[in-house]
Amino acid sequence: MSKITMTTPLVEMDGDEMTRIIWAQIKEILLEPFIELKTEYYDLGLTKRDETEDKITTDAAEATKKYGVAVKCATITANAKRMEEYKLKQMWRSPNATIRAILDGTVFRAPIMVNCIKPAVNNWSKPITIARHAYGDVYKPAEMMVPKPGKVELVYTQADGTVTRELLQEFKKPGIVMGMHNLDDSIQSFAMSCFNYALSVKQSLWFATKDTILKKYDGHFREIFEEIFKKKFEDDFKKVGIEYFYTLIDDAVARVVRSEGGFVWACKNYDGDVMSDMVATAFGSLAMMTSVLVSPHGYFEYEAAHGTVTRHYYKHLKGEETSTNPTATLFAWTGALRKRGELDGLKDLQAFADKLEKACVETIEAGTMTKDLFALANLSSKRHVSTREFLQRISERL
Ligand code: NAP
Ligand code: MG
Question: In a 3-state reduction of DSSP, which class is residue 279?
Fold first, then answer.
């Protein structure tokens, strides 16, 4: 059998700990035997980031702008403990934050569904993708304690000196106060990413805010989404047979729970933070959750939603076989390969990505899985195997 060839390199961002081990195994067992893999390799492992003063992360993000599609392994976000462990020169910023700042975009998270793991919500038969806005609101606030009676106002001073004031509260007793903001640019790119993503997966887009209460603030989000939809996406949505649906956030929550799934749910920053944990947990496991950063300029970066699985890595270092679930990392690769295939018109590469995902899902459904799924799987005959064996079983099925 001749190997599938690629025309444009994929930006490959290697990472840390257990996921770095899994990364190499996926390539060895499931990709390299079938594809003439063409990648531009960036090692985002913490050691290399430290050695290059984090230039490697910026370079990898810039390469993504050049080629359009990247696949990223989970990476350690440095903290005080890691500074000590890796003898770091500096507490480097989270690579995801650096990459997001350069590519500017929205993160979409979707569960990988297998028929032997039932979502906690019975009627969810299709995945629900959460699209979380990642800028502003309560994540970039100004807060104050109000210890004594007094007046709190919002004051906006324009460059020409014009002042606009809005009374927030006339405090008669102690209290607290907060101001928050967002930017038209950021909301527009959030909307663009959501509409583009919904089109690319051919699923309807839901969006919800609390614009009955925050008439100006949340109302502005609603207006921007509506305007962009009408101007740029309405016709394409009709062609594909999907819809854009706006409702109030509380109504959305009720409808999501009653739904069968199969749509993209765009959430403001806080709603997305809270709802993505709810949705991920209700679907079963973080190890079965894909994540893709979609920039408004059309760049894609695929990764797993989980971290570097440190606890398993320390076992691995002691020479113990681990049963870490490689599914989300594998789907990061298939997502990136499929997108590369779409952009370059490589039908066989797209078909390979589909078949590999199918082989992985069917391996689990046939009863061979990693330990984390073993407890959840509703099967009369099942067994848990090591990561390597799991990948080998997928390869046989493929
Ligand atoms: P984590 O790596 O996601 O692991 C948390 C726990 O979840 C694990 O100990 C394991 O539970 C379970 N788990 C996660 N993924 C699994 C998988 N594929 N297979 C089986 N079990 C899995 O989160 P963390 O321990 O909070 O973070 C570890 C490191 O990852 C940190 O340095 C953090 O900065 C980094 N991180 C990176 C990213 C990213 O790059 N996108 C995201 C999050 C965290 P058991 O131990 O009970 O088996
Ligand atoms: Mg959260």
Answer: helix
Residues with Cβ within 8 Å of residue 52, at least 6 apart in sequence: none
CA dist., res. 105 & res. 119, Å (int): 29
**Residues 10-36: pLDDT tens digits?**
999 999 999 999 999 999 999 999 999
Q: Which domains does the chain have, with CATH numbers?
A: 1-113+290-398 (3.40.718.10), 118-141+181-283 (3.40.718.10), 142-179 (no CATH)
Q: Which residue has the higher pLDDT, 295 or 396?
A: 396
Q: Rounded to the nearest whole angstrom, what is the distance from the C-alpha of residue 288 to the centroid of ligand 1? A: 12
User: How remote is the CA of residue 398 from the centroid of ligand 2, in Å?
Assistant: 36
Task: Quickly tell me which residue has 């039908």 as its tokens.
Answer: 347
- The string of pLDDT tens digits covering residues 57-98 is 999 999 999 999 999 999 999 999 999 999 999 999 989 889
Q: pLDDT category, 200, cuts 50, 70, 90?
A: confident
- Residue 134: what pLDDT? 82
Q: Which two tokens stand for residue 67?
A: 């080629």
Using CA atoms, how far residue 168 sits from 150, 171, 258, 295, 304, in Å, is: 11, 9, 38, 36, 42
The owner of tokens 């959430």 is 267
How high is the pLDDT of residue 263?
98
Among 292, 321, 326, 293, CA closest to 309 = 326
Averaged pLDDT, 351-356: 98
Around ligand 1, the residues with Cβ closer than 6 Å are 74-77, 96, 286-287, 303, 306-311, 324-325, 372
Which residue has its alpha carbon closest to ligand 1 atom 1? Answer: 307
Number of helices and strands in the chain (H, E): 15, 18
Instruction: Give the Å distance between the CA of 206 and the centre of ligand 2.
Output: 20
Q: What is the pLDDT of residue 72?
A: 98
- Please count the other Cβ atoms lying within 10 Å of the Cβ belonging to residue 184: 9
Find tokens 């993708």 and name the residue: 129
Give φ, ψ of 77 to 5 degrees.
-90, 120
Give the CB-side neighbour count of residue 38, counting CA atoms within 13 A. Answer: 13
119 beta partners: none
Task: Supply 202's token pair.
Answer: 């051919």
